[in-house]
Write a structure and sequence with these properties.
The protein has helices at about 15-25, 35-40, 45-50, 55-70, 90-95, 105-115, 125-145, 160-165; strands at about 5-10, 30, 75, 95-100, 150-155. By secondary structure, the protein is α/β, with parallel strands linked by helices. Bound molecules: shikimate-3-phosphate. Shikimate-3-phosphate (S3P) binds next to loops.
């Protein structure tokens, strides 16, 4: 049995996509923490933010993180904010092998402009506002992201290369 592998990174950094590829390659399951939260609360992430506010969302997220990381042999794609609130980074560092998928602010802006995933924190932002938000927020969040066991430049990484870097 191996500790779960957690993927950390800003919204749009490819956590779910790369997570699915790692899971396929290793023949293990993937859990998306946002999906787990939605299934266990019976509400969409957008609704939780709208009806209960961010603080309550972070409490639910932290509780779900603790539950999910007890299951070995799986990949877990975390939410962009997960490592940055409460004592989640300590939990992640203790209960998983963590990988930070690092993408430049320009790369993130490009990806998020194209994304159709509804994300409450960036809803309704123009490209300029989005770029400004990413620059500011990434600076704050990297303090947490960079505590991951591995930091991978995710702009062009191939999954087989990533697995070699991490597991050999
Ligand atoms: C958030 C990222 C989202 C989701 C929520 C908050 C954040 O997950 O958890 O909207 O604070 O960065 P993704 O990174 O999967 O979009």
């Amino acid at each position: 049995m191996e500790l779960p592998i957690t993927l950390i990174g800003f919204m749009g950094s490819g956590k779910s996509t790369i997570g699915k590829q790692i899971a396929r390659e290793k023949g293990i399951n993937i859990t998306d923490l946002d999906d787990y939260i939605q299934e266990s609360s019976g509400e969409s992430i957008s609704n939780i933010f709208k009806q209960k506010g961010e603080k309550e969302f972070r409490d639910i997220e932290s509780q779900c993180l603790r539950e999910v990381l007890l299951i070995p042999d799986q990949v877990v794609a975390l939410g962009g904010g997960t490592p940055c609130f409460l004592n989640n980074i300590e939990i992640i560092r203790t209960l998983s092998t963590s990988i930070y998928l690092q993408v430049s602010p320009e790369g993130l802006t490009r990806r998020l402009i194209r994304s159709h995933n509804p994300r409450p924190l960036i809803k309704g932002k123009s490209s300029e506002e989005l770029m400004e938000f990413i620059n500011l927020e990434l600076k704050k969040r990297e303090e947490f992201y960079l505590q991951a066991d591995y930091v991978i430049q995710s702009d062009q990484i191939q999954v087989d290369e990533l697995l070699r870097l991490i597991f050999i």
